[in-house]
Write a structure and sequence with these properties.
Blueprint lengths: L3 H31 L6 H8 L3 H8 L2 H24 L1 H6 L3 H18 L1 H10 L4 H21 L10 H22 L11 H17 L6
Helix pairs in contact: 1-2, 1-4, 3-4, 4-6, 4-8, 6-9, 6-10, 8-9, 9-10
């Protein structure tokens, strides 16, 4: 016989988790559609089908809500990149250039897939310290994962760790700039995502291996 007193708390916890997920998903959708200006507690409440007061009780204010949305988004982004990068597979690839290309492509594809919310958080981070710190935390973790995924790649630099660190910074800075500035960054010639992906792979392979790959 089921203990109804223990079943009720479990049901309440599940309902609470579902409500939190609905709020964060509604906030994320609003950010993608209208940017941070469209993210209001009232708008999120309406989208999630919840009372405004319940959102204030959970997150305190709009800033608390924004940071919770960012945290959930960045955690999902990290997981997606890890899945795309497939660390276990990269570690056993025999061709170092292929392994590097896979890693660069995984990060690029994930950034492209989430271009709209990333643009919001990248631009907001220039004037909002808490948002910047969360972004920096996730970037540092991504840097570590990138180095781990290429741990068996022979890097043509005396300081291997410094070279991998710079390679990740190059990837991240290029993609972040592409997201915030668009395809005409620093030029009147467009740079579509597909071309950027290939050029970035070539540049990182050349830098890390010390040779330009054949095409």
């Amino acid at each position: 016989m089921t203990d109804s007193s223990s079943a009720r708390p479990a049901a309440l916890q599940e309902r609470s988790r579902r409500s939190q997920r609905d709020i964060l998903e509604a906030g994320h959708a609003l950010l993608e559609e209208s940017g941070v200006d469209g993210l209001t507690v009232a708008a999120v409440a309406e989208r999630a089908g919840m009372a405004v007061g319940s959102i204030y009780r959970r997150f305190g204010d709009k800033e608390g809500l924004l940071l919770a949305i960012q945290h959930a988004f960045t955690e999902n982004l990290q997981a997606e990149i890890a899945e795309r990068m497939s660390v276990e597979r990269l570690r056993v690839l025999r061709d170092p250039a292929v392994a590097i290309a896979e890693a660069v492509g995984a990060i690029t594809d994930a950034f492209q897939s989430h271009e709209a919310p990333l643009r919001v958080f990248l631009l907001l981070g220039t004037r909002h310290e808490a948002v910047r710190k969360e972004g920096a935390r996730v970037s540092t973790e991504g840097n570590r994962r990138f180095a781990e995924s290429l741990e068996r790649v022979p890097v043509d630099h005396a300081d291997r760790a410094a070279a991998l660190d710079f390679a990740f910074r190059l990837i991240y800075a290029t993609l972040a700039h592409r997201i915030t500035q668009g395809e005409f960054l620093e030029s009147d010639r467009p740079l579509p995502w597909t071309e950027l992906r290939g050029h970035l792979q070539t540049a990182v392979i050349s830098y890390l291996l010390g040779a330009t790959p054949d095409h």
